Fold this protein.
Amino acid sequence: MIGDEINLQEGRAKFGEAHHYQFAGDYSLIEKLMKPESIIFDFLVSKQSTQLQVYQKFSGLIFLDVSRVSLTKVVNSIETKATCFGFCGLPTFLNRELLEVSLLEKTDLNSLEKVCGLLNTKFAVVKDQVGLVTARVICMIINEAYFAIQGNIASRTDIDLAMKLGTNYPFGPFEWCEKIGIKNVYDLLNAVYKSAKDERYRVCELLKEEANYFTQSRKAAKEKF
């Protein structure tokens, strides 16, 4: 697991304690941890893509977070012998019944079936695109909820309640946004908009403002300490 403690916790919750986990918060020590039999889940790839040369000599299996960039674009930036899959590494999207995955080649399906058997998880192969399917849908719903707030249609509490009661979603849009992280939601929507050039993915101005405020607040807190 390459990411932060939240990613490690969600990975353990998803795949159980029958496996031997190794954790790295960045790429500085990863070459010493990688072995041919390793299965890597990289949550940092879209944030630190310039350091992906660490995979050039690796020949195992890598799951790469595609919440900000497609699998094809990531893999084209490196030369690796590894078999690569795309998954959504945003909070709440790994620890689900189905592991949503994108492939580079149809022939990689056999490897995916084997590794998911080892990890004891069901999987679904989806189109290789930014955010895959579920995360795109959820983030678009969150975006529409922000448009509703911006237009004074309803309160956040009422929108959350309506979505849970009306669609049986586990969380309302604003609850889900908090769990995913508003900056993550903004980054995914912005990446999808730039990729698709489709107005329906344009980020609500209020969501953008709150994401920027969150980023600035974190930056100020770091500078303070």
